[in-house]
Specification:
By secondary structure, the protein is mainly beta. The chain has a single domain (12-90), classed as 3-layer Sandwich (Rieske Iron-sulfur Protein). It is built from no helices and eleven strands. The strands form three sheets. It has a four-stranded antiparallel sheet, with no helix packed on it. The chain has a four-stranded antiparallel sheet with strand order 5-6-7-8, with no helix packed on it. Strands 1-11-10 form a three-stranded antiparallel sheet, with no helix packed on it. A hairpin with a 6-residue loop joins strand 6 and strand 7. It is globular, with a radius of gyration of 13 Å.
């Protein structure tokens, strides 16, 4: 996703801690994950099999894809358990005045 400008994604209060929300930008889905340590953004399409990670199981800082069982660190996109071998794409987000913003 190429954007030279920040993109507002909505209020942080709409995503409780320990929950996720899928945001659609153009033709791409971004999965927002709200943890105690902050808000994180990943591509919603699994790097392994293109399944939607929004249906996955969030456990602490990890997200398990329900299709094939790959486990990713939501903060870094790192593969913690395969079959995925490619890290999950992540995006930078900031929270300012209670608003989540995707930043280039």
């Amino acid at each position: 996703m190429e954007s030279a400008h920040p993109i507002k994604l909505g209020p942080l209060k709409d995503i409780p801690v320990g929950d996720t929300k899928v945001i659609k930008i153009d033709n791409r889905e971004i999965l927002l994950v709200h943890l105690e340590s902050g808000i994180y953004a990943l591509a919603n399409s699994c790097a392994h099999g293109a399944c939607r990670l929004g249906y996955g199981r969030l456990e602490g800082e990890t997200l398990r894809c329900l299709c094939h069982g790959s486990v990713f660190n939501v903060r870094t996109g790192e593969v913690l358990n395969g079959p995925a071998t490619t890290p999950q794409p992540t995006f930078r987000v900031l929270v300012e005045d209670g608003e989540i913003t995707l930043v280039p």
